[in-house]
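_Full entry_
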Amino acid sequence: IVNNGSMLRRSKDDEVLFSQYLNVNDLRVLLQEGINLDLHPIIHVDHYKENCDIILCKEGNLKKNYSEYLKDNTRYRMIEDYSKGIDKVLAMVYPGSKEELNYFNKYINKNFPGKFSIHIIENVNMAEAILEVMHPMVNKWTCLERYANWQGIDLDKIIAIGDDNNDIEMIKNSGLGIAMKNGGIMVKSAADLITERDNNKSGVALELKRVLNL
């Protein structure tokens, strides 16, 4: 399950079992609105067979310097502008300050109601925060639920663990939702349990051993 539930791929043969792309016309309008605010996204695409997972605009890459994000990653492509060459978009990721991304989040919800699924993640290294934009029906839980139904797994038997806003739906709806000690306020409020240690001190492993009596 990748890009917050935008795609489900079978690992043994790379077959795509489910994908949900952004509407091309909607995303191009949104891209221009972001550029007007000097916001340039990292665009995650489903070009797996073409050895490409990320598309960047050269202008945006120069302004934002995404070299750390692309470190050790060769599966990306540079384009001259956003007017062409973009399709099968799974998500758009906007790094920036909390202030500018909170403003953009409110702007998108006001001017594009129902067009996108959006959340802001703060527990990241590359920037103060990132804003992720996806298809309006996409989140981690909807894809996990789909997979569980295909596999005949009872939803109340699922344990979900997360640390940020993109994990909230998954944690709320799983049989047992666990938030990391170093997670955000909102994800902690949605959880059934909070780990005693953070993810830098084996918090996930220790909590699972306790919950599963291992």
Observations:
- The CA atoms of residues 30 and 108 lie 8 Å apart.
